[in-house]
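Q: I'm writing up a methods section and want to include an example of the input and output format. Could you take the sequence below and give the corresponding predicted structure tokens, formatted cleanly so I can copy it straight into the document?
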Amino acid sequence: MSYKIKKFMMSSGERGCLILDKETQLPVYYQNLYLTNNVRNRSATVSTMEIVATNLLILSNYLKSRNIDIINRIESKGFLNIAEIDDLIRYARQRFDKQKITNVRLIKKEQVAKRTFSYRVHVFSSYLKWLCEMIHSIKGIHAKYEVDTFIENLRAHLPRNKTQSMNDRKDKSLSEEEIRKLFQLLEIEGSQNPFQKDVQVRNRLIFTLLLNCGLRAGELLNLKVNDLNRRDYTLSIFRRHDCIEDRRLNQPLVKTGEREIPLSDELAMEIFDYIDNYRDKYTKKKKHDFLFVTHSSCKSVGEPLSVSAYEKIISTIKKTNPELKNLSGHKLRHSWNYFYSNEIDGSNLEVSRKSGLRCYLMGWSKDSKMSDNYNFKHISMKEKEIIGRVYDSLRKITKGE
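A: Here is the clean output for your methods example:
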């Protein structure tokens, strides 16, 4: 393929990315102009920029592979014909493997999820509409009707939105047995622990925080030592987009709202122990305050733990125990919501307060409907319990009990 994506970080701390021609190593013009004007200048996060850039790269590779000069087509009002649009849609349904965001490689015979496909077509159509308007404006060409028809033909392939019912949702949490096995595996100096001794405390604490606080990976990797209040035993979650102190090119981002989470005494002491007895000896010469750091003897020792290092920890666990093959950090967030629902059900709080507390602790807005997505397991268990009682009542009637 002829294009690749290059990430960069400015001296201000702001992250960004560019689409390059792989042969010349130079930025391509229109795609990067679109990224700047329509994504970066609208205060989108770098992760959004990467997603849009990846989809633009896929579109560019498609046009290149079909020898379609889209600029000439637009200037002549030729655009893409119906057969080419159908071909593009088939191409857009395929799965592409991102390799450190530099290359996008086609995975044959695999298709993306409907949501991914929809967003991909959205990016294609938005970019092509912008490109048509840009070129026609420069060339003094008037073809609004033709452009609108072309874009409508492309967007006609977008899947229709369907409201997802509870029956369509799947349980994404870990079972109690899976959680038990995970922490047995992570036991410090345990015979099953797959990690070197110097990172065992860190890795166990990572999963303890994910489970007990329902954190996202970005929130976990953004934590700083001073986010922990040693007097009140609380943990604060802050948004630090484009933090100049954070030199990680792939900066972990906090997608949710800022909040303060109460900690148990035991969990707070576990964090103190990691900071005082493990973390500090690796960060004496480092000018940052991030909680989780690299412990290896390589040049990145003491630096903030990277996204790839975090993913490698999870990958190692999955390989070590086949029963944990579906492990992900986010499943622990779903597990937290299940246990929260079980405990809050028996409380005397009003329904609105129960929901409001969940939204606050998860970093959602107070009117968010996200709890429906995270509460599937609890709701389904309650449904089975109620239906079971209905069966018992009807059985007693039909058998004359």
